[in-house]
Amino acid sequence: MKTRRRLVYAGGIMLLLAGCGGDDNGDEATNGALQEPQGVEAPPPDEAEPPVAEVAPVDPLEVEVEASASLRPDRRLMVEGETNLPDGALLRIVVERELSGVRWQSRTSVQQGGFNAGPFGPGSGLPDGGYTINVLLTEANVQPAGVRERIGEQGQYLAGPLVQTSRHGLGQTIAYSHRLLIGSEPRRTSDRVEVLQVD
């Protein structure tokens, strides 16, 4: 009986001690409130998350191209033109003879809003007839970084009637065509065509 009384007495003391408890450091327990770990400071509220940089939307570039040709004394063709494409934009100029489908091409770039290329044609000179000048913007993935920034990594900022999808699935590009006739007596036509007469 005495042993049982001692056990009950000892158990009661243990319960009292557990109820009064503090932590291992001798600090008083908080009433269920969470404490910040010691030695760790919470960041100020304004530094908790870095600010998100706002990216200004890029306006579409309504592409304009105008080209013309001149015939050199050796009957080879020079092409020049103006465009609002950014300086450094890489272009491919193709001159095609309508009758035979023979093509001559040259690569150039836009400088101060203009471009020129040539001479086009065989060493013996271009024969009389109809020709088409094509001005093509090279795909965006091979353009200089500054040009890609303006036209988009896939040419997505290009706009207007000259825009077309790249044949190789590499986004958008542009294609401009201009017809011309070479000869001392060019045929009559109702098409919009430039006539280069040979003296």
Structure summarized in a few sentences:
This protein is mainly beta. Helices cover 13% and strands 33% of the residues.
Structural summary, described in words:
There is one protein chain. The protein is mainly β. Helix content is 13%, strand content 33%. The protein has helices spanning 2-20, 145-151, and strands at residues 61-62, 65-71, 77-83, 90-97, 103-109, 114-120, 129-137, 158-159, 163-165, 172-182, 194-196. Strand 4 and strand 5 form a beta hairpin. The protein is elongated. The N and C termini lie far apart (139 Å).
Give the % helix.
Answer: 10-25%
Unreliable sequence segments:
26-30
Question: How many beta strands in the DSSP annotation?
Answer: 11
Query: What multimeric state do the chains show?
Result: single chain
Shape: elongated
* Radius of gyration (Å): 40 Å
Distance between the termini: 139 Å
Question: SSE string, helix = H, strand = E?
Answer: HEEEEEEEHEEEE
Largest sheet: 6 strands, mixed
Mean pLDDT: 80
